Amino acid sequence: MVDNSEPLAIVFVTFDGMTMLDVTGPAEVFAEANRFGGRYALTYVSGSGQPVTTSVGLRLPVDGAPDSCPDPDTVVVAGGESLVTRPVPADLVDTVGMLAARSRRVVSICTGAFALAAAGLLAARRATTHWQHTDRLARGFPDVRVEPDAIFVEDGPVFTSAGVSAGMDLALALVERDHGPDLARTVARRLVMFMQRPGGQSQFSAPMRTRLPRTPTLRAVIDLISAQPQLDHGAAALATLAGVSPRHLARMFAIELGTTPARFVEGVRLDRAQALLDVGHGVAETARLVGFGSAETLRRIFVARLGVPPSQYRARFAATARTMSTSVG
After folding, report:
1. 3-state class of 28 per DSSP?
2. Residue-wise pLDDT tens digits, 106-122
3. Among all residues, which ones are annotated catalytic?
C-alpha cells in the first residue's frame, strides 16, 4: 500500500471523440473509494486545456492543460475509436509522454493503449486493448507484446485494460493496491462489481471467442460440449459423435476454429468452473461437475490459464458475490 498522508493525484487525459465511459467508469471507482477512506484527487486535462466532445456528444469540461496540473501519481488515458481509425494526434502523444514522465504509473483504458504505444510507453512491454483491436495494435506496434484475451495487463509501471467495463476492474485493482482489499471490497459492493476479475481472465467465454462453424456437424459437436462439458469429450468420443476420424475432426477444428478439440473442451470447462466457483461450489465438486475429474487437474489449468489457483479465485469471487447479493437485496 502507499503512503496515505497526501491524496494520490489521478490525472485523466481526455480528447475529442473519447469514449465517455473510459473516464467516468474508473473515475467513479476512485470517487467511491474516497467515500470510505480512500485518498484520491481527480483531475481532467486535455491537450489544449479546452473542453472536449465525448463519444456520446456531451461536452466534458476539463481542469486545464497538462502543464497546469500537479505532478500525477497516476495518468489514465481514455480510449476512443479515432485512435484506431486514424493516427494518434501529435498533441495527444505529447500530452501522454509529458504526464507519464512526471508520474508513478500510467494506465490506458481500452483503445487508450494506442496512445501509450504511439508515445513509446509500451515498447517491449506486455499490453492489451479491446478484443476487436488487438490485432491492429500488434500490427501497428510490433514492439508491443499484445495479450489479446486479458482483461487487464500490468507490466512494470504501465497498466493497460480491455474494453470499457474492464477499465473499472483495473481501477478497482489499483484501489486494492493503494489502500488494501477491505476498501476495494467495499467499493466493489457499492458499485455491484466482482472483487475483482483477475487481469489474466479471458475477455470472453470459450464459445464466444470461437467463430461460428460453417459445418453443421462441427456446430453440433460444439453445442454438445458447451451444453454438457462434464461428458467424455475425448478425441475418440467427439469423432464418433461427428461421424469422422479423430484426425479429420482435428483438421476441422484447426481450419474452422483455429484451435484443437482438447483446447476447446478445456476452455469450456474452465468457463463453467469459474461460474460454479462464483456461486460458492467447492473446488473438488466443481472439478467433478465440469468434467476435469480431479481438484488437482482443475488447479493446474486454473494456474496455467488465469494465474491463480481455484481456491484463491473462489475465496475472492464467491465471498464478494454473496456479500453483494445481501447488500443490494
Report:
1. helix
2. 999 999 999 999 999 99
3. 110
